[in-house]
Amino acid sequence: MSHKSFGTRILTFAGLPALALATMGISMPSCPGQEAMQQQVDGLTSRLNESDQKVQALTTQVGTLSKEMTDAKALLEQLSQTVIAQKDAIATLQTGQEELQAKMAAGGKGKAGARK
Q1: Please, are residues 38 and 29 in contact by the beta-carbon 8 Å criterion?
Q2: How far apart are CA 108 and CA 100, in angstroms?
Q3: What is the pLDDT of residues 4-37, one digit of tens each?
Q4: In sequence order, which ranges of the chain are alpha helices (DSSP H)?
């Protein structure tokens, strides 16, 4: 058993510094490759934040446009109903005017014939 604990001690003694060096190499930003990668990550994070802001702005604009489109459709429907009502009123007036003109023409001919 003492042999096993001695081997464990050697492994621990040799492995711990190696592990510490490997961890320092990974966590130290002084490595050129890691620094470049960190810059890329920072740039991508910045672009992602900008994209998120643009998406939020566009989502707000789409919501506003959707509401405005709904309002415009409602107004167009009201306008259409108003135009149809006015068209019917104009047709009624036109018919009434034609009837009056016909009566006046018929009344004028009758009076002219009675004078002769």
Answers
A1: yes
A2: 12
A3: 565 555 555 666 666 666 666 555 556 778 888 8
A4: 2-27, 32-115
Residues 6+ apart with CB under 8 A from 35: 29
Q: What is the Cα–Cα distance from 85 to 56, expressed in whole angstroms?
A: 44
For residue 45, give both structure tokens: 């994070």
Please tell me the pTM assigned to this model. Answer: 0.46
What's at 11, amino acid-wise?
A: L
Distance (Å, rounded) from C-alpha 76 to C-alpha 85?
14
Which residues touch 34 (CB under 8 Å, ≥6 apart)?
Answer: 26, 28
Report the C-alpha gap between 38 and 29 in whole angstroms: 8
